[in-house]
Amino acid sequence: MSKSVERVRQAAHAAGFDIEIREMPDSTHTAEDAAVQCGVTVGQIVKSLIFEGAESAKLYLFLVSGPRQLDLGKAARLTGEALHRADPKHVRKETGFAIGGVAPIGHLIDIAAYADEHLMQYDVVWAAAGGTNFVFPSDPKALVRAAKAQIADIAS
Questions:
Q1: Does residue 79 contact residue 68 with C-beta atoms inside 8 Å?
Q2: Pick from 106, 142, 105, 145: which is nearest to 124 by CA?
Q3: What are the two backbone dihedrals, phi and then psi, of residue 64, each rounded to the nearest 5 degrees?
Q4: In the chain, is it the N or the C terminus that has fewer CB atoms within a 10 Å radius of its CB?
Q5: 114 forms bridges with which residues in the sheet?
Q6: For residue 27, pLDDT beyond 80
Q7: Cα(first)–Cα(last) distance of the chain, in Å?
Q8: Distance separating alpha carbons of residues 84 and 89, to the nearest angstrom
Q9: Residue 123: band (very low, low, confident or very high) from pLDDT cuts 50, 70, 90
Q10: 39 contacts: CB under 8 Å, gap ≥ 6
């Protein structure tokens, strides 16, 4: 298991919950792919999106339900600055995760996080576990607590 996947496991344990990380045989790169592999609805897939502050260059994490899109206007109001997609190299250097395997927990840096309120309607959600084919199921409330995320209206 890679260092980044192990870091996710350790972050969950440190937050007070244990997770079962599963390696899927096929791609979980998109929410649709992940839903098929996990046998759940697309809404139960947590997309971990990293955006960068246009002025500060600070990274922000947005946990968004699979079929929904991050609303940049709403997100900018929460962060206090305009946002743009972060450069993949910057994401990897700062968080320790490559795009496609960004997890909601286990980042190398303290990262401000926001969670789509729509994730709270599910008993179980599935998130990336630090590698492109690694995922884990979680109670959404426990996941949001572990990610230190603020639940908000961030998606459309």
A1: no
A2: 142
A3: -120, 140
A4: C
A5: 62, 150
A6: no
A7: 35
A8: 14
A9: very high
A10: none
SS3 32: helix
**In this structure, what are the phi and psi dihedrals at residue 45, rounded to the nearest 5 degrees?**
-90, 130
pLDDT tens track for 58-93: 999 999 999 999 999 999 999 999 999 999 999 999
Residue 125 has pLDDT above 80, yes or no: yes
Indicate if the alpha-carbon torsion angle 25, 138, 48, 38 is positive or negative: positive
- Both tokens of 140, joined, read 């959404």
The tokens of 139 are what?
A: 């109670």
Token readout for 23 is 């390696």
Task: Indicate the helix (H) or strand (E) that contains 52.
Answer: strand 45-53
Measure the CA–CA gap between 106 and 118, rounded to whole angstroms.
23
**Quick one: which H or E segment has residue 37?**
helix 31-38
Q: Residue 145 corresponds to which tokens in the numbers above?
A: 């607590």
Report the pLDDT averaged over residues 36-64.
Answer: 96
Global confidence as pTM = 0.95
Provide the mean pLDDT of the chain: 94
